[in-house]
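FORM 7B: Structural annotation worksheet

SECTION A. Query
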Amino acid sequence: MKEKITKSWKSLPSALRKTIALVIGSTLIITGLLLIVLPGPFTMPLLILGLVVLALEFAWAEAMLIKVRAQGAKLNPKKLFGKKEH
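SECTION B. Predicted structure
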């Protein structure tokens, strides 16, 4: 199934692929940024998903996604949520 989707995606013209990725990725990122101010969950997943979509076609987004993954790997949930070890 994944191969079929990938083959269909790659068969589209480059300009169309970039436009689709830009519209969907930007929409996800803008929605995630709006959820920072407005009440609602899922802020970070939307931002990261937007970067993943943009990284399909744009090298700068892929580089940014790599940096985000590296920073995410450094997070310690115990320190982040203030859980104390007894």
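SECTION C. Observations
The chain is about 80% helix and 0% strand. The CA atoms of residues 74 and 80 lie 11 Å apart.

SECTION D. Sign-off
Analyst initials: ____
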